[in-house]
């Protein structure tokens, strides 16, 4: 890597010195894989619905460029600016989410998409990073000054967001938001009493959902018994087994032609069939690396806001990847969830890019922290060279 | 390792930090524990995913993808004696579906039927809806059809490469080479013989690999075979017969050089191969061979030593036995010498010849020359001759002139070869056989002198005035033979106008190398007013075959004898 002179204080040079290059490499790898795999998975889907073969692949590339730009742009921001961006996004997206209930395009019985000026966006995707950052800020403020009712606001915010998501309805995002919020609150030092209570509520909510919603019950029953219409997940498993370690080769896969959402929810299985379990391993390791590295940075971080924000952002990212992969691998009941960076989806891609831009921004080496610590001799732990 | 060191480092930072900023770091410590716990949970989940991936990696891919190798068993090529290919394997593509992977059965059927117009729509739909793992939709498609189906881009269907038999010679060798079924197993002709020789076992054990299989070489000469078939097809048309057939047999080795029977079938499209009238009449049909059998009666009489070429037989009056009266077709109404009995084809004379050896001797002779037993040869389609259950006088008399006993044309020709070649009988073969091999596996059943006499008689029948085989002569090739015009049994009676004609010939008569037998079933007169006897239709078939084929068979023409004969007549 080209090292820049310490005397060079241009924003780019400073950025290059301070940005976490491991993260950057991981994100770029995932983006690249997303493009490659969109060529594998999406032509079959595009042809099935009568579009040009490379419709989705082309759009994936078109979306990747702004996503990359947005990610780098956001990574230049300072933590304070990140907070402002998040606040702005949160307010804007909450408005959009209210609007989506009235103006949204109904797809398969859910209103999730808002379309203006020929661009459709999914506000809930953009809401997630904003929500995470704002919650992190609220938790951090509460910790800094316990008389500020940060936690109370965080609970309120959660209720508002969940209400809007359930109204769409979007169960996947609801679970994701609830889970992330819970983990963040857990990391923020929630007493065990509350953990037990909220955990109990979660389990209870699960039971209620199982009893109340037929499709939830159906999916869980099918997962547990393996009976009924398990077509998609069975196909996913067959694809992975058929592919073996090194895959059947690009374009040779058959399952992508059969699974309706092969370019979105089942891209992992398609990758496995064509490029082998080996690539699945690589993808899995990339996600695990991002999540664990993010959490380990959060561990060593001294600023509470940064810690919670980085932790929360990688947790939402991680949860999404884990749910997607587990569904593909028949480790979980079927739940439509995109694989970050890899699955097709413009909103998802750009929103994830914003999230990861925030992660890059928040994990930049910050000389001011040393001052804050009052320990001039000590350097931030994560910047210690490995002996 | 690095992570661990950093973790330790972070811990030591903690210890330092607590001193400086106790209150803040105490909750920071709790947060760190929580973060570590979160990391542990995520690590656990990712480890589970990794474990699942390894588990999948150790699974074997779904094997229920249908029969892959069973149907692609290779067969050896079949070639004629000169190496011309008569049967070979070609690659075809068979369409299968995996109904479980079919997304839209309606669409699939609709699209497939645009390419496979003869597809049974309803049946295919039910197959696709069956939910099983594998069904054949259509076997053995052409490359063009395969390409068209691929263009449809249907999920859940695929192709297996299969071997299919192709017969370059088509109908010409259909009855000899035979057929295979859709799984490339021999079901008739020499294809079946090859399987019975162990190829089937080889295929079952998976050892039938195309490159390892030596071609199977036949004794058949494709050029001669073509001539033979061409002639019998023409004859069948010309004489409005229901069937015709002919065989060219090497008289010295028993090799079948050509054999055809029409109507036959196209082995490349054998939809009618099982039709009853398309059987191989030469080996799988039994007939009352008629007067051609008189060759054997005469040979029997001569071989018994009780008569010689100068013996005479009283043919003045019909023989009446029981309710039957035996008459002559070309009745001379006088005492005939043995050669006269032969060339005038006297039924009465033949009956008298049989009388000389007696009933038991008659049956024993026919048995010895192989006309009463099921012929042994490579071809599976061989019929068993029929004979009276108990031989009585009347049977001996009728059998003497070719009625009352049915045998196959091919074994008649084989018996005639023994009459011509000095008395050696062998099993006919469709595979090459050397002279030494033929000698080793033949049995001497006649006196060589009998054979010499028979050659004389055959030659005489074609050359002497009044001989019935005159129409078989070919200049230079010294053809001799015996006609046979048998009345066929219609509704339990012999009908005088429904005939089965044959001509049993050999050439060149000074040292016969080939026996040629033609048969024609229910011929009509070529033109109204002409007789439809064997001399008029069966003999010309033989003549045409010999005229066209003899040069290819390596028989030297010799015109000197005819010239001499002419000169002699001037003297």
TrEMBL record, chain A:
Q: Name one GO biological process term.
A: regulation of cell shape
Catalytic activity entry: [GlcNAc-(1->4)-Mur2Ac(oyl-L-Ala-gamma-D-Glu-L-Lys-D-Ala-D-Ala)](n)-di-trans,octa-cis-undecaprenyl diphosphate + beta-D-GlcNAc-(1->4)-Mur2Ac(oyl-L-Ala-gamma-D-Glu-L-Lys-D-Ala-D-Ala)-di-trans,octa-cis-undecaprenyl diphosphate = [GlcNAc-(1->4)-Mur2Ac(oyl-L-Ala-gamma-D-Glu-L-Lys-D-Ala-D-Ala)](n+1)-di-trans,octa-cis-undecaprenyl diphosphate + di-trans,octa-cis-undecaprenyl diphosphate + H(+)
Q: What is this protein called?
A: Probable peptidoglycan glycosyltransferase FtsW
Q: Which branch of life, at top level?
A: Bacteria
Cell wall biogenesis/degradation found in the keyword field: yes
Source species of the chain: Oryzicola mucosus
This protein's membrane topology, according to the annotation, is: Multi-pass membrane protein
Record's family? Belongs to the SEDS family. FtsW subfamily.
- Top-tier EC class: transferase
Automatic annotation (TrEMBL), chain B:
Protein location: Membrane
Tree of life domain: Bacteria
Residue ranges constituting the Penicillin-binding protein dimerisation domain according to the UniProt record: 71-181
InterPro entries noted in UniProt: Beta-lactam/transpept, Beta-lactam/transpept-like, PBP_dimer, PBP_dimer_sf, PCN-bd_Tpept
**Mind listing the GO biological process terms from this record?**
cell wall organization
- Give residue ranges for domain Penicillin-binding protein transpeptidase: 245-546
Source organism per UniProt: Oryzicola mucosus
Gene3D superfamilies, A to Z: 3.30.450.330, DD-peptidase/beta-lactamase superfamily (3.40.710.10), Penicillin-binding protein 2a (Domain 2) (3.90.1310.10)
Query: Which Pfam families does the UniProt record give?
Result: PBP_dimer (PF03717), Transpeptidase (PF00905)
Any one GO MF term held by the record is: penicillin binding
Q: Which UniProt keywords apply?
A: Carboxypeptidase, Hydrolase, Membrane, Protease, Transmembrane, Transmembrane helix
Q: Does the keyword Transmembrane apply?
A: yes
- For this protein, the parts annotated as crossing the membrane are 35-58
What is the name attached to this protein's record? Answer: Penicillin-binding protein 2
GO CC annotation terms, alphabetical: plasma membrane
User: Would the keyword Transmembrane helix be found if you checked this record's keyword annotation?
Assistant: yes
């Amino acid at each position: 890597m080209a090292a820049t002179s310490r005397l060079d204080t241009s924003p780019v040079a400073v950025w290059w010195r301070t940005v976490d290059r491991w993260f950057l490499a991981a994100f770029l790898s995932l983006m690249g894989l997303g493009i490659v795999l969109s060529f594998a998975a999406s032509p079959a889907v595009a042809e099935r619905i009568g579009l040009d073969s490379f419709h989705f692949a082309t759009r994936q590339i078109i979306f990747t460029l702004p996503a990359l730009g947005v990610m780098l742009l956001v990574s230049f921001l300072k933590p304070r600016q990140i907070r402002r961006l998040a606040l702005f996004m949160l307010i804007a997206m909450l408005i959009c989410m209210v609007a989506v209930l009235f103006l949204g395009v109904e797809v398969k019985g859910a209103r999730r998409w808002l379309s203006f000026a020929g661009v459709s966006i999914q506000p809930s995707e953009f809401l997630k990073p904003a929500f995470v950052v704002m919650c992190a800020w609220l938790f951090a403020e509460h910790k800094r000054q316990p008389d500020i009712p940060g936690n109370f606001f965080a609970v309120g915010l959660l209720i508002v967001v969940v209400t809007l998501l359930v109204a769409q309805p979007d169960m996947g995002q609801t679970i994701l938001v609830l889970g992330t919020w819970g983990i963040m609150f857990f990391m923020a030092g929630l007493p065990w009493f509350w953990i037990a209570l909220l955990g109990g509520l979660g389990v209870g909510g699960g039971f209620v959902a199982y009893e109340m919603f037929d499709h939830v019950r159906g999916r869980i029953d099918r997962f547990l018994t393996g009976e009924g219409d398990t077509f998609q997940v069975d196909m996913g498993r067959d694809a992975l087994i058929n592919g073996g370690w090194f895959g059947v080769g690009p374009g040779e896969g058959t399952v992508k032609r059969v699974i309706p959402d092969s370019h979105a929810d089942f891209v992992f299985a398609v990758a496995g069939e064509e490029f082998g379990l080996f690539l699945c391993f690589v993808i899995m390791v990339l996600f695990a690396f991002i999540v664990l590295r993010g959490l380990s940075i959060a561990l060593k971080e001294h600023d509470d806001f940064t810690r919670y924000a980085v932790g929360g952002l990688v947790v939402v990212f991680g949860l999404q990847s884990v749910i997607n992969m587990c569904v593909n691998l028949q480790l979980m009941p079927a739940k439509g969830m995109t694989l970050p960076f890899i699955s097709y989806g413009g909103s998802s891609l750009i929103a994830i890019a914003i999230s990861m831009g925030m992660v890059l921004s928040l994990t930049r080496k910050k000389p001011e922290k040393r001052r804050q610590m009052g320990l001039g001799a000590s350097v931030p732990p994560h910047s210690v060279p490995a002996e | 390792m690095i992570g661990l060191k950093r973790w330790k480092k972070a811990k030591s930072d903690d210890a330092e930090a607590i001193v400086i900023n106790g209150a803040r770091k105490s909750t920071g410590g709790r947060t760190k524990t929580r973060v570590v716990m979160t990391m542990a949970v995520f690590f656990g989940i990712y480890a589970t995913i990794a474990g699942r991936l390894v588990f999948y990696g150790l699974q074997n891919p779904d094997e229920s993808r249908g029969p892959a190798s069973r149907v692609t068993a290779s067969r050896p090529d079949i070639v004629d004696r000169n190496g011309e290919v008569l049967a070979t394997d070609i690659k075809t593509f068979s369409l299968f579906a995996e109904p479980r992977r079919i997304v839209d059965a309606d669409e699939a059927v609709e699209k497939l039927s645009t390419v496979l117009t003869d597809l049974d729509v309803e049946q295919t739909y039910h197959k696709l809806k069956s939910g099983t793992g594998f069904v054949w939709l259509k076997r053995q498609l052409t490359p063009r059809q395969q390409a068209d189906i691929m263009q449809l881009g249907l999920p859940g269907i695929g192709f297996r490469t299969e071997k299919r038999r192709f017969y370059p010679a088509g109908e010409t060798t259909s009855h000899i080479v035979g057929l295979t079924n859709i799984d490339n197993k021999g079901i008739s002709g020499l294809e079946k013989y090859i399987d019975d020789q162990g190829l089937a076992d080889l295929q079952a054990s998976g050892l039938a690999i195309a490159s390892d299989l030596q071609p199977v070489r036949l004794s058949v000469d494709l050029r001669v075979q073509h001539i033979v078939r061409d002639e019998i097809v023409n004859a069948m048309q010309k004489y409005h017969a229901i069937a015709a057939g002919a065989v060219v047999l090497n008289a010295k080795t028993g090799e079948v050089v050509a054999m055809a029977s029409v109507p036959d079938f196209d082995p490349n499209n054998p939809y009618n191969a099982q039709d009853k009238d398309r059987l191989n009449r030469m080996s799988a049909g039994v007939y009352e061979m008629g007067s051609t059998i008189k060759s054997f009666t005469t040979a029997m009489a001569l071989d018994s030593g009780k008569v010689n070429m100068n013996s005479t037989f009283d043919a003045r009056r019909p023989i009446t036995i029981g309710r039957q009266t035996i008459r002559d077709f070309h009745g001379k109404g006088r005492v005939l010498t043995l050669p006269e009995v032969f060339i005038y084809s006297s039924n009465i004379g033949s009956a008298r010849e049989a009388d000389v050896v007696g009933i038991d001797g008659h049956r024993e002779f026919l048995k010895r020359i192989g006309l009463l037993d099921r012929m042994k040869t490579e071809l599976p389609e061989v019929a068993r001759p029929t004979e009276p259950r108990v031989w009585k006088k009347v049977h001996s008399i009728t059998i003497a002139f070719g009625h009352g006993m049915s045998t196959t044309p091919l074994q008649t020709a084989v018996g005639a070869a023994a009459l011509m070649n000095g008395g050696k009988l062998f099993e006919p073969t469709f595979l090459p056989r050397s002279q030494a091999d033929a000698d080793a596996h033949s049995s001497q059943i006649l006196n060589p002198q009998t054979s010499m006499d028979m050659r004389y008689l055959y030659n005489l029948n074609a050359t002497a005035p009044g001989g019935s085989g005159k129409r078989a002569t070919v200049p230079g090739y010294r053809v001799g033979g015996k006609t046979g015009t048998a009345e066929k049994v219609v509704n339990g009676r012999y009908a005088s106008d429904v005939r089965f004609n044959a001509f049993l010939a050999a050439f060149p008569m000074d040292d016969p190398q080939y026996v040629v037998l033609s048969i024609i079933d229910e011929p009509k007169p070529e033109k109204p007013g002409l007789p439809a006897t064997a001399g008029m239709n069966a003999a010309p078939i033989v003549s045409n075959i010999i005229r066209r084929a003899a040069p290819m068979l390596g028989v030297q023409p010799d015109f000197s004898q005819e010239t001499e004969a002419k000169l002699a007549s001037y003297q």
